[in-house]
């Protein structure tokens, strides 16, 4: 949980307002607004009969997972007749207390409808930017992968066998759970610092080659974005809720030297697919902050961006995140189409926005470290080295308002 005394903020309202501005720069919109926009999308392909399964049979391994079931159901219902993707933020909590006893509130970021690794990478980059802007300097990103349902089944089978071998060392109050919910039991043991945890099976050892390649894509995004990370087998959650990637961002407690968890998330496809007509890729991260003072979110208004950032090819997509983060830090608002793979879709959105300038990064530009700046009125373009991009945009008066507004992607 983020403690305000560890940040530059005096109130929860101040932290949330800053965090939402960062999220909206990257195209996240309020959750209700995102669901409404999805409902308005023309029906494309029927997805079959809706699932009648509920959440009563879900084995929740973490406290944070219970509210997610409600969100997953709402996402599934709204997206059941369309292939549209959306990015959304929402706040939760306000009436519950963190395990430390302090009243807490969460800021959740969701990306629904995107199965590629860019979704996880974008959430992690945005959350890192939010915590950095809050003044939290020593941040630690821990990431794990539990694979598909088939891989996690093999993993949980061995976890169950391991717990049976060490049942005598487990607290009597926790022993009954070990037989019914091995994963939840292991999570509890990790939180309690049980000595047997260090020798327990590790989920990443059960991944298939395809799952390892998928995981490596996420790590490539993080490395190119300059975000250090550690592979941690202790970042776990219920297999009924999560598949593939799980991640946690923590900070060092200056008083105790221990770690304080700031954010947790992962890919919750199994949960949304439980309520949807067909598999629905979904990924999220939840940032927990203590409640102090007002919690009202102040959103700043400003001019709409006059720039659209487009990419062409996987290499350009990987190189795009640090470029966008640099533009954000320099206060240069842009639209972007990172979640779209085809350049045609991105250019169509750029023309729909009627932006006077388009930034284009293809494979050649990504390798050379340049950016094409195209003027839409004349179709003329110029290649600009990335280190000079922000000064070029300001010098050419392409940026008319350097105050980052609330954006709608």
How far apart, in Å, are the first and last alpha carbons? 29 Å
Query: What general outline do the C-alpha atoms trace?
Result: globular
Helix content: 25-40%
* DSSP summary: helix tally: 13
**Class of the largest domain in CATH?**
Alpha Beta
Order of helices and strands: HEHHEEHEHHHHEEEHEEHEHEHEEH
- If you compute it from the alpha carbons, what radius of gyration comes out, rounded to the nearest whole angstrom? 22 Å
Mean pLDDT: 87
Find the structural class using helix and strand composition.
alpha/beta
Tell me which CATH architecture of the largest domain applies here. 2-Layer Sandwich
Main beta sheet: strand number and arrangement?
Answer: 8 strands, mixed
Could you give the order of strands across the largest sheet? 1-2-3-8-7-6-4-5
Overview of the molecule:
- The protein is α/β, with parallel strands linked by helices.
- The protein has three domains: 4-147 and 207-290, 2-Layer Sandwich (BirA Bifunctional Protein, domain 2), CATH 3.30.930; 151-199, no CATH class; 307-395, Rossmann fold (3-Layer(aba) Sandwich).
- Helix content is 37%, strand content 21%.
- It has helices at residues 12-25, 31-39, 65-79, 118-133, 149-165, 175-180, 182-192, 209-224, 269-275, 314-329, 343-353, 363-368, 389-395; strands spanning 29-30, 86-97, 103-112, 139-145, 230-231, 243-252, 259-267, 282-290, 307-311, 335-336, 357-361, 370-375, 381-385.
- The two termini are 29 Å apart.
């Amino acid at each position: 949980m983020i403690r305000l005394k560890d940040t530059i903020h005096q109130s929860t309202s101040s932290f949330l307002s800053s965090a939402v501005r960062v999220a909206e720069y990257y195209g996240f919109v309020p959750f209700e607004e995102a669901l409404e926009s999805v409902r308005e999308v023309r029906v494309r392909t029927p997805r079959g009969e809706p699932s009648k399964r509920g959440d009563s049979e879900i084995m929740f391994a973490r406290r944070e997972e219970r509210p997610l079931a409600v969100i997953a159901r709402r996402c599934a219902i709204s997206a059941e007749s369309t292939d549209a993707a959306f990015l959304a933020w929402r706040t939760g909590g306000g009436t519950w207390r963190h395990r430390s006893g302090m009243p807490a509130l969460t800021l959740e970021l969701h990306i629904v409808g995107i199965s590629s690794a860019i979704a996880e990478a974008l959430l992690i980059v945005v959350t890192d930017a939010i915590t950095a802007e809050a003044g939290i300097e020593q941040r630690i990103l821990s990431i794990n992968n539990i694979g598909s349902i088939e891989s996690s089944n093999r993993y949980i089978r061995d976890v169950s066998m391991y717990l049976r071998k060490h049942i005598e060392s487990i607290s009597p109050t926790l022993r009954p759970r070990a037989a019914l919910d091995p994963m939840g039991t292991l999570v509890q043991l990790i939180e309690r610092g049980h000595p047997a945890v260090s020798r327990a099976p590790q989920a990443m050892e059960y991944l298939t080659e395809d799952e390892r390649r998928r995981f490596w894509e996420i790590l490539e995004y993080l490395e190119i974005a300059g975000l250090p990370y550690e592979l941690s087998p202790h970042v776990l959650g219920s297999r009924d809720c999560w598949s593939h990637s799980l991640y946690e961002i923590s900070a060092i407690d200056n008083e105790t030297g221990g770690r304080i968890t700031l954010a947790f998330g992962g890919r919750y496809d199994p949960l949304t697919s439980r309520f949807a007509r067909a598999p629905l890729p979904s990924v999220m991260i939840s940032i927990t902050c203590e409640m102090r003072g007002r919690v009202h979110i102040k959103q700043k208004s400003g001019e709409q961006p006059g720039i659209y950032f487009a990419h062409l090819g996987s290499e350009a997509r990987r190189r795009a995140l640090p470029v966008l983060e640099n533009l954000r830090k320099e206060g240069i608002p842009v639209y972007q189409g990172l979640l779209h793979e085809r350049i045609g879709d991105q250019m169509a959105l750029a023309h729909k926005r009627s932006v006077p300038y388009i930034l284009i990064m293809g494979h050649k530009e990504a390798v050379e470290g340049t950016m094409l700046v195209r003027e839409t009125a004349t179709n003329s373009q110029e290649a600009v080295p990335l280190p000079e991009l922000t000064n070029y945009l300001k010098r050419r008066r392409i940026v008319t308002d350097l105050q980052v507004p609330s954006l709608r992607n």
